[in-house]
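Consider this pair:
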Amino acid sequence: MCLDLAAAKNFYGQLFGWQSEDQESPGGTYSLLSLEGQSVGALAEMPDDMREQDIPPHWQVYLFVDDLEQTLAKIHEHGGGVCFGPRQLGQKGRFASCFDPHGAHFQVWQPLEQKGAERCGKDGGLAWCELMTTQVESALEFYQNVFGWSHTSMPLPEGAYYLMSEGADRVTGAMALPPGAPMPPCWLVYFQVPDLAASLDRAKELGATLMMPETPVPGFGSFAFLADPQQAFFYLWKSA
C-alpha cells in the first residue's frame, strides 16, 4: 500500500524489472505486478480511511482462503478487524484488508482466476514473508485460530524465531519486534535477488534507505533490510 502509485511502480520496476498492469476496483486503481509472465504481487494507493489513521505505506501479505466471509467472521471472533472489504477485483478474486489484534495488517484473498503469486523462490520474486509483532504468543494463537497454522520455534541470538505451518508445509515466520524498532507490528516481505550487493546499490540509487546492512544466515543465504522512497519496509534476499 503506497501513497503515490506511479512513483512506487517506477521504483520497483527499475529495481526488479517488474511489469505492471492496472486494474480498476471499487477502491481505485490496483496495479498487478509480474516478471517474465509470472505474477509477483500488486501495488495500490492507500484508501482515505487508512490515511486518516496515519497508517504508513507498507507491503501487505495476501493469505489464501476458501471462504472469505467465514474467515472474516473468525478474524472478528478472535480479536482482529477489517479495514475494508470484501471487494471484488474483476475476475481475479475477492479480498478484504484486515488486521490482527496487535495491529499488523494483512489481506485475505479468495481467488477466482488469480490464485496468487506465481514467481516464488526465484530471482525477482517473493522469497519469504514474516510477521513482526509486540506480542508473539498472542499473535501465534490468533493465526492458529483463524487459519489453522501450527508453529514451532528455533533459537536465534536476538530471540526465538517461530515457523508457522499448515500441515507439513511451512507458511511463514514470526518474531518479536526488537526494542526501538522503526515500525509498528507488521508483515514484511523478502524479495529474492541474484546479487545482493548490486541490488542494494541500485535500491539506494533509486532513493531507498538502508535500515540493516547485508546479514548472513549461515546455511541459507543473506539479507538486507530497506525502506523504499515512500518508507515501506522490505527485505532483499540472496539464497546461498
The chain has a mean pLDDT of 93. The radius of gyration is 17 Å. The domain at 126-239 is CATH 3.10.180.10 (2,3-Dihydroxybiphenyl 1,2-Dioxygenase; domain 1).
